[in-house]
Every structure is written in structure tokens, then in C-alpha cells.
Amino acid sequence: MFVINYLFGFVLVFMIFSVIALGITSTPYQGVIALIGVSFFCCVLMVLLGRTFAALVMYIVYLGGLVVVFGYCVSVEKDKGDVGVSGFKYVVVFLVTSLVCL
Questions:
Q1: Sign of the CA dihedral with 61 first, then 36, 20, and 79 last
Q2: Transmembrane segments in this chain: where (predicted)?
Q3: Helix, strand, or coil here: 57?
Q4: 58, 42 Cβ separation under 8 angstroms
Q5: CB of 15 within 8 A of CB of 42?
Q6: Which pTM was predicted?
Q7: Are 66 and 32 in contact (CB under 8 A)?
């Protein structure tokens, strides 16, 4: 039981990091990848809680929806080059994640 608690906390931390990555992405491609990470870690949490069938169905449905979203992003987006992000945004994200992890 001790190992499961650490695994549960480990998955929760990665889920929080993937949600933060989803919030700070500047291109839709990276957003779709971060959204896949969020859905994966949510499904891993459901498996740890004993809901394996619901996790499998949820992941299959999310992957189907994300394929549609990714196809839409690829067809709509035009290459606009690199978008610069200020250092202040990185500091705020670091402070928020530090507070959440404490």
C-alpha cells in the first residue's frame, strides 16, 4: 500500500505539470500533445482507483476526439514563426507549481 501512495502522488504531480504545460503552450500542436498527456494521466489515476474499463473507454474516446482536433489544427494553422514568451510567465508558472507541490 505504501508504494501505491507514492505512485498515486507521482501521477498527480505529472498530471498537474501536463495541465500547466497545456496552459502555457503557444502553438496548437503542443497543446494537443499536452492534452493527450492530461488525458493519459487522468486515465492512469482511474486505473489506480480500480476503474480500468472506464479508463480504457475514456482514453479511446479522448484519443478519437484529439485526432479530430489535431487534424483541424494542422489544416487551419499557418506558420507564423516563433512566438516569444516573456520570462515573467515562466517565473509565475514556477512559483505556482512550487506552491502546489508543497
A1: negative
A2: 6-25, 32-50, 56-74
A3: helix
A4: yes
A5: yes
A6: 0.63
A7: yes
Residue 95 is inside which H or E element, if any? helix 87-101
CB 48 within 8 A of CB 40: no
H/E element holding 75?
A: helix 52-76
Q: What is the pLDDT of residue 23?
A: 84
Please say whether the beta carbons of 70 and 27 come within 8 A.
Answer: no
| pLDDT tens for each residue of 30-73 | 777 888 888 888 888 888 888 888 888 888 888 888 778 777 77
Grid coordinates representing 49 are 482507483
- Distance between CA atoms of 85 and 6, rounded to whole angstroms? 34
CA distances from 15 to 3, 54, 64 (A): 18, 18, 20
| Distance (Å, whole) CA 58 – CA 73 | 22
